[in-house]
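Handout, page 2. Input:
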Amino acid sequence: MGTTQDTAGDIVTERMQLVREMLARVRKVAEAQIRRDSLDAIKAELVALAARRELFPIDEFPPIEGGNASMYRLSEDADHRYALYIVAPAPGQFAPPHDHSTWAVIAGVHGRENNKLYKRTDDGTQPGVALIEPSGELDIVPGTAIALMPDDIHSIHLGADGPHANLHLYGMSVEHCPERRMYSRSKGTYKIFPAATGVQKARGAD
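Output:
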C-alpha cells in the first residue's frame, strides 16, 4: 500500500507534467501576437488544467500570513515570461481596480472570486489621472475563466466563503512587472504600484 507521501509525490509529478504540456501549447499561440482571440485559446487551455482540481489540493496552498494574497509560482520561463501561479487568498480579501501591464488569464479551481471590470473614459493624456466606469462583472468559479489584455482593468472581491484558489497565467511574471497601475474611481486617479514580492515556489515548480 502506498503512503501519503507517495500520493503527494504522484500529484506533484502529474501536475507539473500537465503544466509543462499546457505551457508548450500556450507559447505556440502567444508567440505570434496576443489578441483577444488568442487569449480565448489560452483561456481554454487554462480552464482544462484547472478542471483537474485534485492536482491542486487546497491544503497544499494555504493563505500566506500577513499577505493580501497568496501566490505560489508553478512555472516561469528563464526570461520571466509565461509565469503560472496558483493564487489562494484568504476569504474576504479585496484587490482594488488595477491593470497588469501584461496579458493575464485567471481560471477557477476552488471557491468563487467576483471580478468587476472597468473601462477608462478619459483620454489618458494627463499623468496620474484616470476616469473609470464599471463595464461588467464575472464570477470566477470552477469551469470559468477571464482573459485580460495588458490595459484591461479589473478588481477582485472574495466573500467570507472559501477556501479560494485560482490559476493565474501572465505573459510576464508579476515579480517583473513594475508598471502596473492601481486606479481610484472615487478620486479619478491612478498610481503605479511596484512589482509583486513574497511569491512562494510551489513544490516541483520549474
